[in-house]
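2024-03-11 09:14:02 INFO receiving multi-entity request
2024-03-11 09:14:02 INFO entity count = two
2024-03-11 09:14:03 INFO echoing inputs for audit
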Amino acid sequence: MVRIAVDAMGGDYAPNEVIKGAVSAVQEKGLEVILVGPLPTLQAELVKYDVSHLAINCINADESVKEGEPPALVLRQKRNASVIVATKLVKNGEADAIISAGPTGTVVASALMILGTPEGIDRPVIGGNFLGFSPNTIVLDNGGNVDCKPYHLLNFAIVGCVYAQKLLNIPNPTVALLSVGAEEGKGNELVKESYPLFQRSGLNFIGNVEGNDIVTGRANVIVCDGFVGNILVKFCEGLGATIAKWLKTSLSGKLSNTEIDRVSNDLLALTNTADIFGGGPLLGVNGVAMVMHGRSQALQFTRAIAQAKTMVESGLVNSLNSELIRIRRQLHNGKD
Amino acid sequence: MVRIAVDAMGGDYAPNEVIKGAVSAVQEKGLEVILVGPLPTLQAELVKYDVSHLAINCINADESVKEGEPPALVLRQKRNASVIVATKLVKNGEADAIISAGPTGTVVASALMILGTPEGIDRPVIGGNFLGFSPNTIVLDNGGNVDCKPYHLLNFAIVGCVYAQKLLNIPNPTVALLSVGAEEGKGNELVKESYPLFQRSGLNFIGNVEGNDIVTGRANVIVCDGFVGNILVKFCEGLGATIAKWLKTSLSGKLSNTEIDRVSNDLLALTNTADIFGGGPLLGVNGVAMVMHGRSQALQFTRAIAQAKTMVESGLVNSLNSELIRIRRQLHNGKD
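2024-03-11 09:21:47 INFO inference complete, emitting structure
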């Protein structure tokens, strides 16, 4: 049975919403959850549920991390913080995945330091599908790495391809660089330098795509630096939420409130994927890690735990390692 | 009377839609239009309208520019191209503004080379409001300058402030850097280096804003490089168009087709401003210039000509020059 370590103390609604979501996940999804936090706190929450027959275990961790604390300091000084203890469970083979809605910087840093990255990858990348209108398109990086070199973008592409193959079931994903024009030579220095590297990579590279192509799904894996990606994701969420709200006014009196709510909520679901899934995977580390929004609630934790299970079962991490070796060989041969 | 030079040969629907739009602008807006193109072509179009009492003049220009021709080559070898002749009318004081839907690179290059830029500005910037949900927010650069230095971003901010003052009637516009977090220190190298420069500028700088803040209108002038800005604008247009189309399906059978079209078209108008205005101003050149989308039709030309008139009447260009001097003095004093 897949074992998911859950940082019970991370997020705005910890521990009650985290534990509520974890209990549902165990009930519904056929998996084991290991809750990590101060044992008395965990137990005080768990008594609210009938968990006697459920695969829920608790591991003690009695330090907490506040928003704004420098991740490096947390890693050095708070070795008994719940996110760190939970991540170590994965490292030691006692869990298959870690989920946390704690401060993103700390979750990323602890995954990076404790789990490490496959050879050839410096830093993990945040990515996935963020737009329901183009479900077969993932964009990465979404904010992990704001200043990038061409080889970073290539690594994002490799990670993205493995994700698309394993989790979206796309055998030979198309890859594109996000730019300001489709033609070769259009773009900033980073894109122009990355283009030939992508051409030689053996990936199914289709060239540059533009901003609107994220919506139309012209490529399966769209690559950009984390600065552009993060701004895009947040703009998408903001625009979706604003249009959903505007629709309520615009349709008011013309449709029943139930219908208006349906349309508005459907649109939110299509544009605010993080609200639906509660976060996304941290890719490019030696283990399965999910980084959640701080505002996640029980439903999002349940969904994220289910997604982590799927990721574990997909064999994503091993595939990434073998794909990295293949691409490195291809690039090496291309140079000879 | 304000005189607008119109490149009659630029755009996918030139010259018929350009001239149709220009005739309407003269009829409705109280201005003079100077059409630039091969005289026989212009005259053959104009006979379709009763223009005997209208302030429409024609100037001959018998070379044409194709999409994809290198702008530098056009400027050297096609001195009688309609966009160049039209821009020279502004330079020589025979017109007050130039409008073209020709290839953007060529329109920008000819404005840059022929009109020049105010002292302290290297290159023009494309910018303006691109989202109807936040009408008091402009984002720039939208694609003119893909790789930027901090002083470029500062110039965009200055240009944007003058635009907000003169055209949006905002006396003391708030200015922000577009970034991946609101806190100082969040962002890529460019944003981090620009932050202290903005602080010392004497502009009404409120710090960093995130992608969703473009929608909420947290600042009047949001500054980013042209790579980020162009991707955002195109993503916005693409997402808006996709949601408008999705609404038609989602509301089908629940509202009358007229109502569905109204909601869908309202949303398009709020998210695809370039379709409404047909383009936007090229800012930071010594003259008023409007760069139109190639796909613009008569209605967009009429609106863009009207917008150019407003820009001329606002005294935007002179204000920009005096504001540049003021900010430069402020920065200089800040250093002493």
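2024-03-11 09:21:48 INFO post-check: Residues 226-251 of chain B form the longest helix (26 residues).
2024-03-11 09:21:48 INFO post-check: The two ends of chain B are 46 Å apart (CA to CA).
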